[in-house]
Design a protein that fits this description.
Shape: elongated
CATH superfamily of the domain at 1-97: Tetratricopeptide repeat domain
CATH class of the domain at 1-97: Mainly Alpha
Radius of gyration: 29 Å
Strand content: under 5%
Length: 367
């Protein structure tokens, strides 16, 4: 603050500051900016005005200018918590998580019990896949607030990201217990996805159905239900739900191939071909071509199936299923030598796959 600012100007700054922040709350950003720039006309280094301008720019998602205002404030007021908080949030929004972490840790030097900042730091560590630091900070938040929703949700995502699905379930189930009547739909779909990963499909269905009861056209709920029925090999129900998604998103290549798979599972090969070709009309898709190759295999067109799958190996050389399907086609053609050769080619990549190993042993012991 300039020493030569008069008492009248101080009062004017105070009024402009109150007005600017009230306008910010009301989302009247242009008017708020005018108030804050008026302050800078009196006091060019005023921390309230610089932070206010940063907050207004951040609300507009103009993160570059927001960063400039916050940094300008911190040059003159290095410990300003509001500027530190806003600056870190901008870096987070720009996916610059390591920079966000550095700024938030500076903030925590002044206030190490702020659970909002602590959960943000834990989230950022999760984004950069630093499991230990992320978990440590989430757990610290839970020590301070036993049922903190952000920490429980974050811990669920952290364990899910690291494929620790049982642990993820534990935290997300606790969220459901705490919010029985107002659970977030995303918690139900997250719980469903854990069960999909664990292949406990019946349990997954329970959560996806709860999500669907909250939002009848929710993509993730419909996808989860369809995929659980697929896992349970109930193709009719799986198909029913894939088709519901397709009504909402008719050009979704992934769903088109899943519809093709469901029709193939039901032995409706013409319909399956139709949907695989629809997917391929959008763009190249490994699973659509594989689906067509498997239809050829079912119809005894082994050479055509082999040719298609060899082409797929060029795009997906580590997909064990392609090698085992080609080997099966060779066995149907009584080409045991070629079946072994393709499986050994997979083995030479140094990937250990139980199904491929068992298939090699089975072929070797054939008479």
């Amino acid at each position: 603050m300039h020493e030569d600012i008069t008492e009248i100007q101080l009062n004017e700054i105070s009024e402009l500051s109150k007005r600017g922040y009230q306008l910010l709350k009301e989302n009247l950003l242009k008017e708020a900016n005018e108030a804050f720039f008026s302050i800078l006309g009196i006091d060019p280094r005023n921390n309230y005005a610089l932070v206010g301008l940063g907050d207004a720019a951040r609300k507009r998602h103009d993160f570059k200018h927001a960063i400039d205002f916050y940094q300008s404030c911190l040059e003159h007021h290095p410990g300003n918590n509001y500027a530190l908080f806003g600056l870190a949030d901008c870096y987070k929004a720009l996916n610059h998580y390591n920079q966000a972490i550095k700024i938030w840790e500076k903030y925590l030097q002044h206030d190490n019990t702020n659970v909002t900042v602590l959960t943000r730091v834990a989230d950022a560590y999760r984004k950069v896949r630093d499991f230990r630091h992320s978990r440590e900070i989430y757990l610290r938040v839970l020590e301070m607030e036993n049922d903190n929703a952000y920490a429980l949700i974050g811990l669920g995502h952290l364990h899910y990201d690291f494929k620790e699905y049982q642990e993820a379930l534990r935290y997300w189930e606790r969220m459901v217990d705490l919010h029985k009547n107002d659970s977030d739909i995303r918690i139900y779909t997250s719980l469903g996805n854990c069960h999909r990963k664990l292949k406990t499909f019946k349990n997954g269905l329970v959560y996806f159905e709860k999500a669907l009861a909250m939002e009848s056209n929710n993509f993730y709920a419909l996808f989860g239900i369809a995929d659980c029925y697929r896992g349970l090999n109930i193709q009719e129900k799986s198909l029913e739900n894939w088709l519901k998604i397709l009504k909402l998103d008719p050009h979704n290549k992934v769903i088109l191939t899943r519809v093709g798979d469901a029709y193939r599972g039901l032995g409706k090969y013409e319909e399956a071909e139709e949907y695989y070709k629809k997917a391929l009309n959008i763009e190249f898709d490994v699973y659509a071509i594989l689906g067509l190759a498997l239809i050829n295999k079912t119809h005894g067109k082994y050479e055509e199936a082999i040719s298609s799958m060899f082409n797929l190996i060029q795009n997906d050389p580590k997909n064990h299923r392609l090698y085992s399907e080609i080997a099966e086609c060779y066995l149907r053609l009584n080409r045991k030598d070629k079946a072994l050769e393709i499986l050994m080619e997979f083995q030479r990549q140094g990937i250990r796959n139980v199904h491929v190993l068992e298939m090699i042993e089975s072929i070797k012991h054939r008479s």
